[in-house]
């Protein structure tokens, strides 16, 4: 019985899939970068003219829809972003100009828990 230590030959379909993966990765990175750039433009335009803001916002919506069509991002994520930026760009709506940050409720609750534990420990030591 002879055994060869060389790796088995890759199938043609595996080679093609690897090439497709490289191509898709390059497209995904490019589209995500352009999306982030357009989002920054929308945030920058919030303090300026309404016509410029609407123009940039429509570019963002088109880019998000294109990214969904290509499978770069999920449609719910695109809809969420469109809704968020639509609220910010609508005149008369008090929306923050900076990016939304996660609430600190979790941090506050952990502080409260640690304070409660400290009280329990001090009572049990007495």
Structure description:
There is one protein chain. The protein is 72% helix and 0% strand. It has 126 residues and is an all-alpha fold. The chain has a domain of 75 residues: Methane Monooxygenase Hydroxylase, Chain G, domain 1. Helix 1 runs antiparallel to helix 2 and helix 2 runs antiparallel to helix 3. The longest helix is centred in the N-terminal third of the chain and has 34 residues. The mean pLDDT is 84.
Helix content: over 70%
Low-confidence stretches: none
Specify the biggest β-sheet. none
Round the mean pLDDT to the nearest integer and report it.
Answer: 84
Instruction: Give the CATH level 1 class of the domain at 17-91.
Output: Mainly Alpha
CATH architecture descriptor name of the domain at 17-91: Up-down Bundle
CATH topology of the domain at 17-91: Methane Monooxygenase Hydroxylase, Chain G, domain 1
**Tally of helical segments:** 4
Secondary-structure class: mainly alpha
* Total E-strand runs: 0
Q: What is the helix/strand order? A: HHHH
Q: CATH-wise, what's the superfamily of the domain at 17-91?
A: Ribosomal protein S20
* Rg calculated over all Cα atoms: 26 Å
Distance between the termini: 79 Å
Beta-strand proportion? under 5%
Shape: flat
């Amino acid at each position: 019985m002879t055994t060869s230590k060389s790796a088995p030959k890759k199938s043609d379909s595996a080679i093609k899939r690897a090439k497709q993966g490289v191509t898709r990765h390059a497209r995904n990175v490019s589209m995500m970068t352009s999306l982030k750039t357009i989002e920054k433009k929308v945030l920058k335009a919030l303090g300026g003219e309404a016509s410029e803001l609407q123009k940039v916002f429509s570019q963002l919506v088109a880019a998000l829809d294109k990214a969904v069509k290509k499978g770069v991002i999920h449609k719910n994520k695109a809809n969420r972003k469109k809704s968020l930026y639509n609220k910010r760009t609508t005149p008369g709506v008090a929306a923050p100009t900076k990016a939304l940050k996660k609430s600190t409720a979790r941090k506050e609750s952990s502080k409260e828990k640690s304070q409660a534990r400290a009280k329990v420990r001090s009572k049990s030591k007495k």
